[in-house]
From TrEMBL:
Domain of life: Bacteria
Localization, UniProt: Cytoplasm
Full protein name: Acetate kinase
Residues engaged in binding substrate: R94
Positions of the record's site feature: Transition state stabilizer: H183, R244
Transmembrane domains' residue ranges: none
């Protein structure tokens, strides 16, 4: 038997999500999450899935992503699924920024590593973690193909009128200043699953996909291709996020420099790490914000309203971009779990054919499902994303093309949403 297992690493700024998937039958053997990397107390939550084993959590300090991956490797080894396994076919890595050159799943070599490194300034929270993930995996298994799957890839089909900023062309081209878009692996996967849910061919549906996690982005997808997306040169543009501002007047940056003496790095840090929901009310977790709203907290209520207002603006904008919309699709941690966000985002949009059914919206469930009433002209759906499965599919297709499935399948695990 040739090896058929793929380990997927999704390294974020302070976390690593991972899954081990056997591509022979798409079964999950293990999944887990190392979080609060670099803080005083980090945790690794590991779930063996194959033998129905118990979820384990261990705490301790993980100084950096290298240490986190060491801990992940130990957890896998404890279940007999160590990185030394001959059944491992490849390791698939989520890489956030691929720029203009890296738009396909790619086997990593020195030139690819160099290009990912070159893009660090435009994905400062993500690309360094992705690089550490790849380098650590290379060290642990130098013989295995390491495959990079890029968040930007799905958006590379955006037409120039959506991808370009209205700034001097020479300056823009010299410094590759344009809109790239992110969360593409999720937008692609969710678009396909939404078409399946609607019983239609992906080529014939127009969708507004709302990926609402800690980072959040919207995209307008026509017939399976991205036509516009809310993130831009970096993952800062667009929606209000957990800690990122999303859209602001760029003059805010110059203003803060002039009146507050903040340099570029200080404003960068403000807009990426101390803004969004966190900046508005002190919490970035939607669960906590809803709890505070229920307790009468006005700052939390205002933060929620600002979040929803921006979301609604993008739904309207992408409705106009697409002309006809078959479904608005919610995904990722907030999109999949926060019924009040879904309800508020489409409230008042009946004229556009949009509505949610209160009971369907609040019903529990982890499956892809419709939450709009039968009469609605435009479907509203919740479709759990599965970036890890999608990365595994693309990795396997690259390293074992004759054995990869033409259409990805498989059910999401119980835990670790995106
Ligand atoms: N039950 C829930 N209700 C509301 N929000 C939730 C719930 N579960 C998770 N979330 C939100 O999802 C976010 C994480 O989403 P996720 O897609 O996992 O983000 P990321 O991949 O960016 O870490 C949390 O910060 C929280 O705001
Ligand atoms: C690109 C991006 O914003 O990713 P995340 O949501 O994982 O932070
Ligand atoms: Mg995510």
């Amino acid at each position: 038997m040739s090896p058929s297992r793929i380990l997927v690493l999704n390294s974020g700024s302070s976390s690593v999500k991972y899954q081990l998937i056997d591509m022979a039958d798409r079964s999950r053997l293990a999944a887990g999450l190392a979080e609060r990397i670099g803080e005083e107390t980090s945790t690794v939550t590991h779930q063996p899935l194959a033998a129905g084993g118990e979820r384990r959590t261990r705490t301790g300090r993980l100084a950096d992503h290298g240490a986190a991956l060491g801990a992940v490797a130990e957890e896998l080894a404890a279940d007999g699924l160590g990185l030394d396994s001959p059944e491992l076919a490849a390791i698939g890595h989520r890489v956030v920024h691929g720029g203009l050159r890296l738009t396909e799943p790619t086997v990593v070599d020195d030139a690819v590593l160099e290009e990912i490194e070159r893009l660090v300034p435009v994905a400062p929270l993500h690309n360094p973690a992705n690089l550490t993930g790849i380098r650590t995996a290379q060290r642990l298994r130098p013989d295995l193909p390491q495959v990079a799957v890029f968040d930007t890839a799905f958006h590379s089909t955006m037409p120039e009128h959506a991808a370009r900023y209205a700034i001097d062309t020479e300056t823009a081209d010299a410094h590759r200043v344009r809109r790239y878009g992110f969360h593409g692996t999720s937008h692609a996967y969710v678009s396909r699953k939404a078409a399946e849910l609607l019983g239609k061919d992906p080529g014939e549906v127009n969708l507004i996909v709302l990926h609402l996690g800690n980072g959040a982005s919207a995209s307008a997808v026509r017939g399976g291709r991205c036509e516009d997306t809310s993130m831009g040169l970096t993952p800062l543009e667009g929606l209000v996020m957990g800690t990122r501002s999303g859209d602001i007047d760029p003059a805010v940056v110059f203003h803060l420099k002039r009146v507050a003496g903040m340099d570029a790095d200080a404003v960068d840090e403000l807009l990426n790490k101390r803004s969004g929901l966190l900046g508005l009310c002190g919490d970035n977790d939607m669960r906590e914000i809803r709890r505070r709203i229920d307790a009468g907290d006005r700052a939390a209520a205002l933060a929620f309203d600002i979040y929803i207002h921006r979301l609604k603006k993008y739904i309207g904008a992408y409705y106009a971009v697409l002309g006809r919309v078959d479904a608005v699709v919610f995904t990722a941690g907030v999109g999949e779990n926060a019924a009040p966000v879904r309800e508020a985002a489409v409230a008042g949009l009946a004229e556009l054919g949009l509505a949610v059914d209160g009971e369907l919206n609040t019903a529990a469930g982890r499956e892809a499902r419709l939450i709009s009433p039968g009469y609605a002209r435009v479907a509203v759906a919740v479709v759990p994303t599965d970036e890890e499965l999608e990365i595994a599919e693309q990795t396997y297709a690259l390293v074992a093309p004759s054995r990869a499935a033409p259409t990805p399948g498989g059910a999401a695990p119980e835990s670790f949403s995106t």
